Amino acid sequence: MTSYPLIGHTGPTQPLAYFRGRVRSAAQFLADAAALAERLPDGDAVFNACQNRYLFAVALAACVLRDKVCLLPASRSADSVAQLREEAPELCCVSDQPDGEPTLPTLQIDDASLAPDGAAHWPPPAIPAQQRVARLFTSGSTGQPQGHDKHWGEFVPAMLAGAARLGLERLPGFVALGTVPPQHMYGLESTVLRPLLCGGVLVDASPFFPADIKAELARLPAPRVLVSTPFHLHTLLESGLSLPELALMTSATAPLASDLAGRLEARFGAPLLEIYGSTETGQLATRRSAETEQWECLSGVTLREDGPEGAIAEGGHLWQPQRLNDRVLLDGARRFSLLGRNADLVNVAGKRSSLSYLTQQLLAVPGVDDGVFFLPEEEGGAGKVARLAALVVAPTLEREALLAALRERIDAAFLPRPLKFVSRLPRNAIGKLPIDALRAALDGANDE
Amino acid sequence: MSDVANRELELEVAGLIVDALNLEVSAAEIDPNEPLYGEGLGLDSIDILEIALVVSKRYGFQLRSDSEDNARIFASLANLTAHIAAHRTC
């Protein structure tokens, strides 16, 4: 039976994390995970709600040691948690927040839950490749959350293939600082699993403002890897701040324009690699965005055509063939260009939904006669978060009341901006709503 | 700062926010004491970063998470304006 070690570090004293500003060694991490594993309640599934990245990693490792699955919902809304509970009635929660998770039996952890200073476990235990370790949720095109199982034998090969592509062999002991949370696929892979499995150092901080990122980097030793998004990188560039020396920047969650990538590389003196992936597939391909618009699949992954502008990825770390969520143009089996998202899917600041689902929610608000959600412009990759727009026919509704009703139904990231009241939608002869007509109606005079 | 100067700065900051975020209200319509997050203006953390950027450009100082209580600073336009008045370098 194939197995892989819980961590990729080769010696007990190698640094594995920065936690509260201090180094935590590989052996100390294993001791922390073992200590927490003993305290985990019975039941097969654990909602890992830890916000601190190190405590999140310890909770994840503790679950792996006890053969429990970490559930990671797309959001922490009451609905999402209720949905998790339906899936796993014995669900409990591990949280480092004082209020825990009110609707679930919660194991509260903090710094005192870790093994005492100087504790050490070595060597790393072997984990069967077949073991299911995590279940991540996407909102799905119907809005109903969909779970995606992840096995140890998927994560480890994906991380090793990714590390090879990112050139991390040349950066032993790389220190990964992330501006993204660990609960979603990109943050989980790039700020938690990659350091753990590839001998790197994870950083518990989640800096927010540009000045925070700079201050955090200054506290860390080289080689530094900044794991971020087009939006955060754009903000960092525009802030005018200089940064400590970086070895690598990575970006994901939305496409990054090549000129922005070029300016980032020039300013911060490090290569910027964009990572293409999804919750379903994990990371699949990368590109040096300043130099090429073509993506190259990770080692072992290949693509084949599936209908016009569609593709299926298989091989490598993928256990099942997976259809891509985007429209692509293939160039052989290992390279492709992105043409755009599937028309219905939207991604706002890393949160996914579909225009048809959002439109349904709009139409379900009492007083709305007609309405539609759409993208006011194509994603430009310039680091601005593309917001959605909506046209609505609701002669008896006040704007505030409609927005309040929408806020109850959909994530705030998807609230329309702008929301325009019109007397009728620009339907064509067959009742469809061409995107050009919608955009023109948005720009046109207000006919409230 | 006098009440008049304060209201002027408040309107200026509100104008920056409306422009940066493409909001559907005019600067004068933003209630200085209403929450910026969630209810009220309905901003999210992406917006807060955008605001931090325009504030740093216009007023010459960087916002930090660990130095100040951000929840308080972004609790309302009035609080944000007071923070800017206290920290601006230009």
UniProtKB/TrEMBL annotation, chain A:
Which Pfam family, just one, is annotated for this protein?
AMP-binding
Q: Where is the AMP-dependent synthetase/ligase domain?
A: 27-292
Q: Which domain of life is it from?
A: Bacteria
Does the keyword section mention Ligase? yes
Q: Does the keyword Ligase apply?
A: yes
Keywords in alphabetical order: Ligase
Identify the Gene3D superfamilies for this entry: 3.30.300.30, N-terminal domain of ligase-like
In Swiss-Prot or TrEMBL terms, this protein is called: AMP-binding protein
- The organism is Crenobacter oryzisoli
Q: What is the lineage of its organism?
A: Bacteria, Pseudomonadati, Pseudomonadota, Betaproteobacteria, Neisseriales
UniProtKB/TrEMBL annotation, chain B:
Q: Out of the domains of life, which is the source?
A: Bacteria
One Pfam annotation reads PP-binding
Q: Which organism is it from?
A: Crenobacter oryzisoli
Limits of the Carrier domain:
7-85
Q: Which InterPro entries match?
A: ACP-like_sf, PP-bd_ACP
Q: Which protein is depicted?
A: Phosphopantetheine-binding protein
